[in-house]
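Lab meeting tomorrow. Please check the following:
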Amino acid sequence: MELQNVLQQRRSIRKYKQQPVEKEKIGEMIQAAVFAESWKNSQTPRYHVIQSKEMLEQFKKKCLPEFNQKNVADAPILIVTTFVKDRAGFLRNGSPDNELQNGWGIYDCGLANQNLILKATELGLGTLVMGIRDERTIREFLEIPAQETIVSVIGVGYPDIEPSMPKRKTIEEVSTFY
């Protein structure tokens, strides 16, 4: 599939088929994320993959608000994305390299997540990125180390709907040329 087609076909999916996602496809998605560029090649994003039915059920109930529980009720995979703090945007001695500091970790995680999501689309999978979640409960539930910042939860599965593309802004609305 051509990149332009992937970009145009990708949608937020809120209904999934009752079909397991092959472990190889999850591996391909994470490998695509690893290929993303990062601050001084720091490669700080991390992926916590929830695939067992029991853990999925518990995670959805404990860690997501009700509306997101409904959005991913049928998702057979959830991926919690994090990044290692105080590395991207920092010098080796730990001092900040610029004013964004850990903002670079979030930025790098976003770049990697985009690769992951676009690869999922190419593989015929649907995704939903969720930023509204219970960070403290997720950290405890998955035993995520304190040095990792939780960024998002991504629902993954075979889509059971084909949403239309929402209206997009024009180039003129989002750009300033000098």
